[in-house]
């Protein structure tokens, strides 16, 4: 039995607490909740009574040893700081996305994690989605051949001005550290690098307060280049109705379209690269169109799962703690997603291409310039 303490009792933290208390975990016991906001703790106490221990002071929570493992579900900037303290105090730790706001802070967490024997995971629950597991398999197994192009339009994040007005910290450089990229898109950016690997460079176009009265970005277009010459485009927005979630992947042996929780797979009978190399005279079909490699539309079976992805990623973390099984979403993977979003921001800030790995000091400098002007005030620059 693994005893759990949850840090943060906001929207996401309270959801995790409900899941722990729902009975869906057979080998987990929620024992403690910590939030610096005493009103939130009162809400939790009114719901769960003396079943749990409640804390409003960090040192009391970490020093209590009422639990074996910690789930961090606080505002973004605090994620790496609290995860590091959890490891320092001898606890396993699972961190909500994003792992942080800037990669330099996450480097310090990784150093601590490397010195610890505790299990360090991140809530990239989309990795448990059978749909994207199948897509990863299609790419990594070579079914699509050499990758040529990746396009992901993810604009079904509709948010109103009323949503942004609901908290002084929302959509601010000082409070959240960004907008749609840092808040809504970490899962998709993680899948982007998990399935396709890290790009070589990016040209980012983040539009700050374009369609909403906010200081951070509400619309983004990013253009990626990869070592093998493949290109990728990632587009996101919070103001489109209806929004889209469409991923297209093209290789020399086929094309995959993922939309509406379904996979369309067009499989070429031969490599387009080889076909083009070997064709000596251009031919035409009966209707006068250019001939092209033969291809078939194939059905791709995808397992269905009725279980919550948030529950599944926590079960995976718990299984690793108890049985030592490989972790589906290791905390050490999370810096890749964050580096991609940092790179898109940095490219926008300097109006130029950004190579990977990014200049982390330069990004932090540019971020702090915006934090100082933010309507959500912080005491000092981030380090």
What would your notes on this structure say?
There is one protein chain. The chain is of the alpha/beta class. The protein folds into two domains: 2-126 and 308-330, NAD(P)-binding Rossmann-like Domain (Rossmann fold, 3-Layer(aba) Sandwich); 127-304 and 337-373, 2-Layer Sandwich (Dihydrodipicolinate Reductase, domain 2), CATH 3.30.360.10. The protein contains 13 helices and 15 strands. Strands 14-13-12-11-7-10-9-8-15 form a nine-stranded mixed β-sheet. α4 packs parallel to α5. The protein is globular and about 80 Å long. The mean pLDDT is 96. It comes from Sebaldella termitidis (strain ATCC 33386 / NCTC 11300). Pfam families: GFO_IDH_MocA (PF01408), GFO_IDH_MocA_C3 (PF22725). This is Oxidoreductase domain protein. Residues 132-256 form the GFO/IDH/MocA-like oxidoreductase domain.
